[in-house]
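COMPLEX REQUEST
Ligand: heme C
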Amino acid sequence: MKSLFLFFTVCMVTFFTSGSFAQDSLAKKHGFVGADVCGMCHKSEKAGKQFDIWKSSKHSTAYQTLLSDKANEIATKKGLKVPAAQAPECLKCHASGYDSDSTLIGKKYKVENGVQCETCHGAGADYKDIKIMKVKEDAIKNGLVLPADKEKFCVKCHNAESPSFVSFNCEEYWAKIKHTKPSEIK
Ligand code: HEC
Ligand code: HEC
Ligand code: HEC
Ligand code: HEC
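STATUS: Structure written out below.
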């Protein structure tokens, strides 16, 4: 009996830790606040201008891309019955929060912001407060994700499942969206 219980425990753990990217973000029950809220503190020169760097990257317009004729052509060819911007098959890499319970979506959160801070760093309602943010360990406990292995992390979306995929070079791509704190620049 004991071993059967152990077996099920192992199965459950395996199930919950091996999920796809979408399941990962669903598993966390933290609320989304939106890039504008993160931007309040991550905009200044001193902080490292993360907001501006993100805003001028293609990640911030990834949802807008789905509204284009090109996107809808791709969707139609794939046999999707709805426009690209409504298809989970496209939204899964071009946005976040679209499939979350509405109680988890903050007033300022915009799906239209595409691949935003919380798409990569986890939903931030529980870690965004200054007291928690200042202590890395506390932030992580409250949902902050710091992708340790960039290569592995980026290819969750930058892969051949993307209809327009050509290639992905982690170093080159990271250089385009790098948003390191000034104090960390050596
Ligand atoms: C009230 C201000 C404030 C808000 C809002 C805020 N942050 Fe922060 N954040 C900070 C401060 C302060 C630090 C720690 C100081 C530092 O090292 O830059 C920090 C650190 C971080 C770090 C680096 C952690 C580390 O130590 O490596 C990340 C990543 C981060 N914030 C992401 C976010 C995201 C994503 C949001 C929105 C969901 C957000 N922050 C909202 C103030 C804020
Ligand atoms: C949630 C999915 C997702 C993740 C995770 C992700 N990206 Fe992206 N990325 C996209 C999408 C979608 C686009 C295309 C946006 C568009 O053109 O509308 C894109 C575009 C880019 C571009 C612009 C490429 C060009 O054509 O100029 C760069 C650079 C980039 N990503 C770097 C990264 C790096 C580095 C990581 C990992 C740290 C990463 N991305 C993680 C979805 C993602
Ligand atoms: C495409 C994914 C992606 C997006 C979008 C993104 N980040 Fe990051 N962020 C990363 C990765 C990867 C790191 C590096 C983690 C590491 O090397 O430890 C990082 C690091 C950081 C750091 C720590 C920098 C340091 O030097 O320690 C801060 C602060 C941060 N991000 C804030 C933000 C904010 C604010 C936004 C939105 C305006 C944002 N990020 C959007 C992936 C992303
Ligand atoms: C596995 C993640 C993923 C999925 C699923 C995905 N995309 Fe993308 N998409 C990306 C990434 C990453 C890019 C950036 C270009 C690249 O490196 O592939 C991108 C770029 C694009 C572009 C811009 C291409 C260009 O040449 O400017 C369009 C349009 C697009 N996607 C439409 C769609 C449509 C429509 C769907 C759904 C049928 C979809 N995508 C599904 C990840 C994805």
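REMARKS: The pocket of heme C (ligand 4) is lined by residues 65-66, 68, 70-71, 74-75, 78, 84, 87, 89-90, 92-94, 157-159, 161-165 (CB under 6 Å). The radius of gyration is 18 Å.
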